[in-house]
Amino acid sequence: MATPVQVPRGTVPGHAALSGYVMGIVAHTWDFAEALGHPHGLAPEPAGSALATARQVLPGFRPRDGRTPFSARREAAEDAGPYEQPAAWLGRTPLSRA
After folding, report:
1. 72 — alpha (psi -120 to 50), left (phi > 0) or beta?
2. Residue 89 pLDDT
3. 24, 77, 23, 32: which is closest to 53 by C-alpha?
């Protein structure tokens, strides 16, 4: 997992690439679930890992600019589920609140 691998944004250790891909899968799973109107019933473990990765690679104190592939972080609702938390960190807004 420490072996460097090439990803779209450069070369990173294998564990970082895997974490980034899990974050992307979680974000897009939330996107699909939200679009289909089924935002609940997803396994919480991948979402927790994705949120940890998102907080590491996109810290809240750093502004997001045109080079960042995510919108500005928003606050998740107090009752946000495990997938809505990383979605909010990545700038997504639930359709019900858009």
Report:
1. beta
2. 94
3. 23
- Please report, rounded to a whole number, the percentage of residues in the chain having pLDDT higher than 70: 95
Identity of residue 4: P
Q: Give the tokens for residue 96.
A: 């019900």
For residue 35 the two structure tokens come to 């679009």
Q: Are 86 and 23 in contact (CB under 8 A)?
A: yes
For residue 98, what pLDDT band results from cuts at 50, 70 and 90? low
Question: Backbone dihedral region of 91: left (phi > 0), alpha (psi from -120 to 50 degrees) or beta?
Answer: left
**What residue has token string 């606050």?**
75
Q: What is the pLDDT of residues 37-72, one digit of tens each?
A: 876 667 889 999 999 999 998 888 778 887 788 888
Whether residue 85 contacts residue 39, with contact meaning beta carbons closer than 8 Å, is answered with no
Q: How many angstroms separate the CA atoms of 43 and 49, rounded?
A: 11
